[in-house]
Amino acid sequence: MGNAPTTAGLEQLKGLLKQGEEQGLGIAGLIGIKAEVLEPGRVVFSLVPQAAFSNPLGIVHGGIMSTLLDSSMGCAVHASLPEGALYTTLELKVNFIRPVPLDGGRLLCEGTTIHVGRKAATAEGRVTNADGKLVAHGTTTCMVFSPVTNE
């Protein structure tokens, strides 16, 4: 990622994802989310659908798509935060555009921040299939917890 600007949140996120590659950390390790791009305010994750992701109709379950969106949008916020700041998702809105077949190939999900303030942050995300077609998109609102100071 060269000489791109960085934040403490981005560096922390890179460390967590590196640890996850080694140990299968958290939800990313559980379902196979991989980091493709990590920048302040922007992340791109990939995911290859698996048979275990199936809903009763034989396509990728909406919960998997929601998890991918929540992860990318939340991490876009995380990558924008200063040292010691934390966040949590307050609201998640997902729109499913087209079905995602289990054998449809790798999905890409780009999450980007819209606004990052001291108390709240918003972000949007887009999931595209192997053909580059939009399959889902969403927005999130996150609560930001500012770093604790000893003052």
Automatic annotation (TrEMBL):
<dbReference type="GO" id="GO:0005829">
    <property type="term" value="C:cytosol"/>
</dbReference>
<dbReference type="InterPro" id="IPR003736">
    <property type="entry name" value="PAAI_dom"/>
</dbReference>
<feature type="domain" description="Thioesterase">
    <location>
        <begin position="58"/>
        <end position="136"/>
    </location>
</feature>
<dbReference type="InterPro" id="IPR029069">
    <property type="entry name" value="HotDog_dom_sf"/>
</dbReference>
<dbReference type="GO" id="GO:0061522">
    <property type="term" value="F:1,4-dihydroxy-2-naphthoyl-CoA thioesterase activity"/>
</dbReference>
<keyword id="KW-0378">Hydrolase</keyword>
<protein>
    <submittedName>
        <fullName>PaaI family thioesterase</fullName>
    </submittedName>
</protein>
<dbReference type="InterPro" id="IPR006683">
    <property type="entry name" value="Thioestr_dom"/>
</dbReference>
<dbReference type="Pfam" id="PF03061">
    <property type="entry name" value="4HBT"/>
</dbReference>
